[in-house]
Amino acid sequence: MAETETISTTSTTLPATKISKEEENELEKKQGGISLRIWPLSQKTRDAVVNRLIESLSTESILSKRYEIFPSKEASSVAKSIEEEAYGVASAAVVGDDDGIEILKAYSKEISKLVLDSVKTRPLASPNPIAADAKADSTEDVKEEEEAHVDSVKVEA
What we know:
Layout: H1 21-31, H2 43-58, H3 62-66, H4 72-92, H5 101-121, H6 129-156
């Protein structure tokens, strides 16, 4: 007859403890693993994003070919609000143990959407002053020519 052996096991769950980033990194080094998390972004990275947005909005770019260039102060405030809103949207999308790639995609997509919304909804400034002056001058010239023509017709009659 075969003997059967019964083994009883007891499992205990340790309470979850919150550890600092330094402790987490140290633990991973001991375990031989490397962890690379790209979210949340550092303030330095967020500032770089804002600076790039300011540059894109206030200088000659693909956007300025179709839409107007923003003045520096306006570009700065618009860029900051775009980045803050996109960061908030992406942070709300944080899911569990994600390494941040999907969150970063959501952040980038939101920034693109907000930039387009900003340039599309921005009221166009008055036309180029030089072009407006030239148009006014040409309109006056046409009126003067018409008046001269009418005067010359009256003289002939």
